[in-house]
Amino acid sequence: MQQSFIFKSLKEQQGVFGTQDIWARKIEKELGVTLSLRGDQVEISGDESHKAMARDVIKAMVQLVNQGEEIREDLLERLIEDSQEGDLEGLFKAMESAVTLNYKGLPIKCKTFGQQNYVAMLKEKAVTICIGPAGTGKTYLAVAQAAQELKEGLIERIIMSRPAIEAGEERLGFLPGDLAQKVDPYLRPLYDALRDVFGQERADKLRENGTVEVAPLAYMRGRTLNHARIIIDEGQNASLSTLKMALTRLGEDSRMVLTGDVTQIDLPKVSDSGLSRCADILRGVEGIGVIHLNNRDVVRNKIVKDIVKAFEKEESRQAEKRNMRPGEPGKRRGGPIFVKETSHDNNHLL
Questions:
Q1: Cα 222 from chain centroid?
Q2: Which of 158, 195, 275, 335 has the smallest CB count inside 10 Å?
Q3: What is the pTM of this model?
């Protein structure tokens, strides 16, 4: 038995099918269904459960189109994935309101329930610690929230910092220029986030007049930062003592966010990373929030999500292997091993 959906306008039909039916073909491929357009009605053929998912995706796409959203590949991929997991409502809740408007006047919105919890924490807590893989919007959303606070007059400046730690074999001393020029490449991701939110011209002006400051983490020592939103990026590459130093820079009417990916530590010794220990020490302290994002919160190209999933699977396999007794396959030291996976149900405000 076929399922169907009736479009109320040409705009809805075009939004769902896309240019040269590109979105319809993607739905067919990912969900194993066939879509046939008959006038203002699309008929869905295939397995019963897949037909239901496809109809839910089409209904969600129409709702988003009518809300003024542009259907893009990453958004459609998220709709398809959420339909497969029965969690389409979470996407709509996350996208209910904009964090801020970018320099083009377009809204910057959360795209996952985890991101929504993260932004809520940024608004409520004096200090937020966000740990998660690449592509989850840790830094981007922090910059967007800081931009909104600046627009509302809640802060006077934005201070962005990260450790100047090399990834790979290149070393600071081999780069040309003075110290400022040497560390500048390591701060480039922060400049990119500023440009995306403010636009290149305004971002440059804000930096020139001191409203926005971007500096290596070592430059924070000895300062008291008042009336500011402080964003410490790549916190996994800082020691516990350095993070303590950064946290104690907080002055009057200031808020701070520490972000990092503990699976990408560039320090000579992984054990030197202080981000996870910092989160454990401060968890439960009033005014401090800790949130973990995971692969479901990745909003970059779908391949990034797949890469993160693959590495998480391998890390879990290696963790289980390390707990097996040599020569005794199947037996694990200390009983069964449970691999902890963060779910959004646990991403409550702490």
A1: 31
A2: 335
A3: 0.77
